[in-house]
């Protein structure tokens, strides 16, 4: 992560050969009951999923994220570059993040549906439109000069109707506006 020379934008570069993570459902063995259970987990994202994540962050939360392009690291591996407006360095606390997400209609995903303890408290789902977010740590939000809490680095995805075995069906499935 780098600040642009004029201090107005934050540039984010992917790590060599990596494009972050996304949330996915996997079938895992429950060692207590010896039955298979579907759980949510993180998996490495494809470059297209990485770009989709940033488009959704823009559409769902309004953060003006731009795809700047691709570069090659010194070892020749590709990196994608996105930019966002510099909002500030002040981060909200857990309670403020929870209030923000709850106010936007999100509910924390039940721990029983998660494969990894480190995902507890940071995966949220909005049943209305099927938007799922992860990595909702306070460090991934910033407070602007008015005190508004703005997500700057969430894993955002859509759960299309009928694709989840464990999350409730969206009542008004998310659709990208055509413009």
CA(first)-CA(last) distance: 30 Å
Strand content: 25-35%
Count the beta strands: 12
Number of continuous helical runs: 2
Question: Can you summarize the main beta sheet?
Answer: 4 strands, antiparallel
Poorly predicted segments: none
Can you give the mean pLDDT? 93
Q: How do the strands of the widest beta sheet line up side by side?
A: 1-2-6-5
Molecular shape:
globular
H-E order = EEEEHEEHEEEEEE
Oligomer: single chain
Query: Could you estimate the helical fraction of the residues in percent?
Result: 10-25%
Class by helix and strand content?
A: alpha+beta
Our Rg estimate from Cα atoms comes to 17 Å
Q: What's this entry about, in short?
A:
The chain has helices at 47-61, 94-103, and strands spanning 2-3, 9-13, 21-30, 35-44, 66-72, 78-85, 107-108, 124-126, 131-134, 141-143, 149-151, 155-158.
Overview of the structural elements:
The chain is α+β, with helices and mostly antiparallel strands and 179 residues long. Helices cover 14% and strands 34% of the residues. The protein contains two helices and twelve strands. It has helices spanning 47-61, 94-103, and strands spanning 2-3, 9-13, 21-30, 35-44, 66-72, 78-85, 107-108, 124-126, 131-134, 141-143, 149-151, 155-158. A four-stranded antiparallel sheet has the order 1-2-6-5, with helices on one face. The protein has a four-stranded antiparallel sheet with strand order 7-8-9-12. Strands 3-4 form a two-stranded antiparallel sheet. The mean pLDDT is 93.
